[in-house]
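Support request, please re-run this one:
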Amino acid sequence: MDLAAELAQFNPDPALAAWVGKLLDKSQSDARTLQQADLKIRALTLELAYYKRIRFANKSEQFSAEQRELFEESWNTDTSAQEAEVEQLSTRQPVKRVRAGRQPLPDHLLRIDHRHEPDLCTCGQCGKDLVKIGEDISEQLDVEPARFFVHRHIRPQYACRACETISAAPIPAAIIDGGMAAPGLLTWVMVSKFLDHLPLYRLEQIAARQQVPLARSTLAEWVGRVGVALQPLVDRLTALLCERHVLHADETPVPQLDPGKGKTKKAYLWAYRSNDLEPGPPLLVFDYQPGRHGLHARNFLEGWHGHLMVDDYAGYKALFAQGVTELACLAHARRKFFDLYAANQSPIAAEALRRIGELYDVERQAQAMDAASRLQLRQNEARARLEALHAWLLQTRIRVADGGGTAKALDYSIKRWPALIRYADSGVLPIDNNPVENSIRPIAIGKKNWLFAGSERAGQRAAAIQSLLGTAKLNGLDPHAWLKDTLEKLPVWPNSRIDELLPLQWGKT
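Re-run finished. Output below.
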């Protein structure tokens, strides 16, 4: 209805018509302002709900393994405490509880036998001799805390009376020449600091409890020297990683001490991980850099051309202009709709989550398949679902006003659609970036302990050592055993055989 046109039919006074026209223009302007304000309010409400969930609830779509274990731990602790209290209050003889389904203790552990013979070898009823008819064996798991001990290297000196020369066997070569730390101690320090995220002052306190003085300055010196010794292995690991055709990449902020200003500044730990769907052992390399500029990723991947799975961070865009093929993360696209659904139970978000869930059902079916079978399944099952999802996204976007959270979630997937569906035309491309995010997660947890990196060099050293330990974990190796063995061999190991020391084939040759 055009109110200004209808008013003109009555031929009113020109001054009145002008006044009424101004009122109509103002009301229409106010309506547009209110509509924009409403969209802004909805967007802010969604954002507020998201940050409230981040601040006061779990950050992911479901409880993480650590969160579930925390609740299970509390529940099991409370249950056991209640059972113990009941047993204490009971006047009856405590009944031995049978723990059904308890897993046997690992066979490789040292067994220390304790034999419990009866006080008498005769029957307490009739006095006749007892005859052994069997054994009842039960096992308990025990542990010793870090145990410090000393290796004594004794070198007998031999002299030749004829030529008056003295001979002695050489001392085994060590990572730190003339140092007092054996490979086992160096391994304990490195694994505790970089894998268990224990600051050096805590290691100093642990040693002090056993009357072993280990100054933090000494521990820091060992870390620095071991980091230098391990650098050739990290360089080789990086070279092997860049031979792969598909990589994951992500980055996480790391506070770095800024002594000149008396506070910390933001640096970044970039992570690059191999693709689990390709043949070959998994590889993980961290690269510490003072910022988040895309130049750091271009420098690390200089000369590399392949498929790169990343989020929507603009820093990677220059790589895609240089011949690298972009893969978009479907988990990131899903997360946009999950945030929307968690904030206001949006039916549009619920439908998107349902459709994306079907795509992940296909991936679960393909998990154990070879590349050819996986490609066939994706073409038969995922392709049609992706096309239907794309059509639904476009149709839904037409009905949604600009500026709101729903529009942003839809736009994220629509804008990145070619990169999101690229995986379906291959049997080796990944569907999301979760593998590298899972590799970064322990670093984020560790930051709560060590708070910040002391310098850029310290950050680079930490990234190098975490690359080796993280790769060892991905390959199913015991990082402590691998590192101890490597530190023992490294001083005299030929560079031409350095691949044998990498945490890929160790223990399998």
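Residues 277 and 428 are 5 Å apart (CA to CA). The first strand starts at residue 158 and ends at 160.
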